[in-house]
Design goal:
With 240 residues, the chain is of the alpha+beta class. Helices cover 20% and strands 45% of the residues. The chain starts with a helix and ends with a strand.
């Protein structure tokens, strides 16, 4: 232990003693003349220095707003977050979601009752033991500052690439509008409606090879370098 302490002291001293010399001068002289105490002080300062250097600034990965409430995914990774930030005039709190790897978030209303939050996550599920993109829906429990599960979908009909929550058929309820990858490598859009127990696939588009991007959370897309609006007609998802 003594040798380890000396090694830590020596490496730490070489790294930080010049920078923190003025700090050490603030300590009482009897501490500075005590060699062991000086080692302890330098090691503690070094640990603080290293922790500070490792900290990364949090960034917003995705966000949404409904009325006076905002919700966002934050983290140090540009792809996946580790916290959900919920803020309105009455509440402002963070929820730890490390391990869920959230990448998309949106307010929605799938049944006409309390609003839900749809979160795109990248993780395993109890019934599908592979890492994959999934859609989980929650209600916000403001008093307990947590998310209460509504439904956590193991998987859709095909592997999920992206999604939005939208009311394409104008029935007053949001559906999951998913962008899915088919076995032949083509893509397809599908709409899943809530039926009080689960989501049922209600509409779909023809398969296509072009890259499709959701430009917003109001069913505006970009395909073949052209912007278009999604809509439902004759039981099919179309765009124009």
């Amino acid at each position: 232990l003594k040798n380890s302490a000396n090694e830590i002291y020596s490496s730490t001293l070489l790294t930080i003693e010049p920078a923190f010399l003025t700090i050490l001068q603030l300590f009482p002289k009897y501490l500075l003349y005590n060699k062991n105490m000086k080692k302890i002080i330098l090691c503690l300062i070094g640990l603080v220095f290293l922790v500070s250097a490792c900290e990364q600034e949090k960034i917003i990965i995705d966000s949404d707003t409904r009325a006076d409430t905002s919700i966002s995914i934050v983290g140090t990774d540009k792809t996946y977050g580790d916290q959900i930030h919920i803020k309105n005039p009455s509440y402002d709190f963070y929820i730890d979601v490390e391990g869920m790897n959230p990448w998309k978030i949106q307010f929605c209303n799938i049944d006409g009752g309390q609003e839900e939050v749809a979160i795109g996550v990248y993780k395993e599920s109890p019934h599908h033991k592979v890492m994959a993109k999934r859609v989980f829906l929650y209600n916000i429990d403001y008093e307990r500052q947590r998310l209460s599960p509504k439904i956590r979908i193991s998987r859709l009909s095909n592997p999920l690439e992206d999604f939005i929550m939208a009311d394409l058929d104008q029935e007053g309820r949001d559906s999951i509008i998913s962008l899915e990858r088919l076995k032949d490598g083509s893509s397809q859009l599908a709409a899943y409606k809530w039926t009080n127990f689960s989501f049922d696939r209600s509409y779909s588009s023809q398969s296509f090879q072009a890259e499709l991007i959701f430009l917003d959370k109001e069913a505006l897309i970009k395909i073949d370098e052209q912007e278009a609006q999604l809509y439902v007609e004759g039981g099919k998802i179309l765009w124009q």
